[in-house]
Amino acid sequence: DLLFCPDFTVTTNKKSGPDKHEDLQSIDSCEFIWEAGVGFAHSPPHVPAQDINHTEILKLILTCFSQSIYQASSADATDAPNRWITVFTSADNRHALPLFTSLLNVVCGYNPVGFGVPYNHLLFSDSREPLVEVALQILITTLDHDITAALSELEESAVPDNLFINYLSRIHREEDFSFVLRGFTRLLNNPLQQTYLPHSAKKVNFHQELMVFFWKFCDYNK
């Protein structure tokens, strides 16, 4: 709920956000997707403080997804599915669709060049790049959590579907593919951009995550 909390991680037209945590249950998070793109045409205002809050919450979630790092190396520890990821990507998470859409749109909508002014990244801090990096890591972790292939039919029926894989595989509109393709092209070309002025263009530092996510996208949406 905190990832779609008005005045904390999303912008609302109302004068003030909810007074109690229980009030967040009544919010339709599909109206507060973080960035325009796939399945969402409205472009919300960019608030750096909200980017920072998104980043910190996603880092906390990513830590919970990484429980295998903190477990003893044993067969039971490695074979058991991560319950955090299972719930996060299942229908038990009512924010699954807006979360997936927000993460995907934040990544594919990111433009590290900004307005194209040389050395602008030295004059202004970029709150969006850390968010894009952790969003990529969340997407890769959740899309890599496909345990149904290793289960029997009886076991598979007891495991909820990974909605992130389902949503990714169902992207089919031409305008959505164009948006995603432009995003991948822009970010993958970033290291190759050369200018007459040394270090005048901002370079991103999540190329490995971007390549893995590109592979996952191509694999699940054939």
Which helices and strands appear, and what pairs or packs with what?
Elements: H1 48-65, H2 75-79, H3 83-88, H4 96-108, H5 120-123, H6 128-143, H7 153-157, H8 163-169, H9 174-188, H10 207-220
In brief, what are we looking at here?
With 222 residues, the protein is mostly helical.
Q: Whole-number average pLDDT? A: 83
Radius of gyration: 19 Å
The helix/strand class is mainly alpha
Regions with little confidence, pLDDT below 50 for 5+ residues: none
Overall shape: globular
Largest sheet: none
Tell me the strand percentage band.
under 5%
What is the first-to-last residue Cα distance? 32 Å
**Count of the separate structural domains:** 1
**What is the chain-wise order of helices and strands?**
HHHHHHHHHH
Would you report the number of β strands?
0
Task: Report the oligomer.
Answer: single chain
Helix content: 40-55%
Helical region count?
10
Describe what you observe in this structure.
This protein has about 220 residues and is mainly alpha-helical. The protein has one domain. It is built from ten helices and no strands. It has helices at about 50-65, 75-80, 85-90, 95-110, 120-125, 130-145, 155, 165-170, 175-190, 205-220. Helix 1 packs parallel to helix 6. The longest helix has 18 residues, at about 50-65.
Quick tags:
globular, 46% helix, 0% strand, 222 residues, mainly alpha, 10 helices
